[in-house]
C-alpha cells in the first residue's frame, strides 16, 4: 500500500435505505451504518475514504471500567 496509511482504505456507498447507509467494504463485506455517520454531501455511488486509528485513552478507560466492575462482582 504505497502512499497510504495502514488504517486508511476506501468503501463504496451502495445505497441509503430508511436512514441506513449500505457501504461495500474491501473483501466483499457490507457495513450498515446510520446515514448520520456519513460525511456531508455523501451520495449513493460515491467512494469514501475511511481512516482508523487506535484510541489509547478510551482503551485505558474501558479496561479500568471493567476492572472496577469485576471487583464489585467478586465482592458479592
Pick out its properties.
OB fold (Dihydrolipoamide Acetyltransferase, E2P); elongated; four-stranded antiparallel beta sheet; alpha+beta; 1 helix; 76 residues
Description:
- With 76 residues, the chain is of the alpha+beta class.
- It has one domain (8-74): Beta Barrel (OB fold (Dihydrolipoamide Acetyltransferase, E2P)), CATH 2.40.50.
- It is built from one helix and four strands; from the N terminus they run E-E-E-E-H.
- A four-stranded antiparallel β-sheet has the order 3-2-1-4, with no helix packed on it.
- The protein starts with 7 loop residues before the first strand and ends with a helix.
Category by helix and strand content? alpha+beta
**Rounded Rg:** 18 Å
Averaged pLDDT: 92
Task: Tell me how many strands there are.
Answer: 4
H/E element order: EEEEH
| Highest-level CATH class | Mainly Beta
* CATH fold field value: OB fold (Dihydrolipoamide Acetyltransferase, E2P)
Strand order of the largest sheet: 3-2-1-4
| Silhouette | elongated
- Domain count: the total is 1
- Main sheet? 4 strands, antiparallel
Element layout with pairings:
Elements: E1 8-17, E2 20-25, E3 29-34, E4 47-51, H1 56-74
Antiparallel strand pairs: 1-2, 1-4, 2-3
Short description:
This protein is α+β, with helices and mostly antiparallel strands and 76 residues long. The protein contains one helix and four strands, in the order ββββα. The chain has one domain (8-74): OB fold (Dihydrolipoamide Acetyltransferase, E2P) (Beta Barrel), CATH 2.40.50.
